[in-house]
Amino acid sequence: xxxxxxxxxxxxxxxxxxxxxxxxxxxxxxxxxxxxxxxxxxxxxxxxxxxxxxxxxxxxxxxxxxxxxxxxxxxxxxxxxxxxxxxxxxxxxxxxxx
Length: 98
Description:
There is one protein chain. By secondary structure, this protein is α+β, with helices and mostly antiparallel strands. 45% of the residues lie in helices and 12% in strands. It contains 3 helices and 2 strands. α2 (45-65) packs across α3 (70-86). The mean pLDDT is 90.
């Protein structure tokens, strides 16, 4: 039975056409982050490339949908990334912020 409160994104068109491997799924649940993922890459630094690429996609969305520039969005994303990186806490656990 489908959950009416679950709002999923569609599979990207190129993955729909060519196939692929889903490596990350993220949901906001009660203001916090809920994630399922698999290792997916031989080397952990590849996740760094993936995370920066995701940040660029997010910045483009803000540029397209708001008055914020790509550069400002990237600066804000990076600032919070660095703040979160330095914050002590339970690894893999996020606190609600929005």
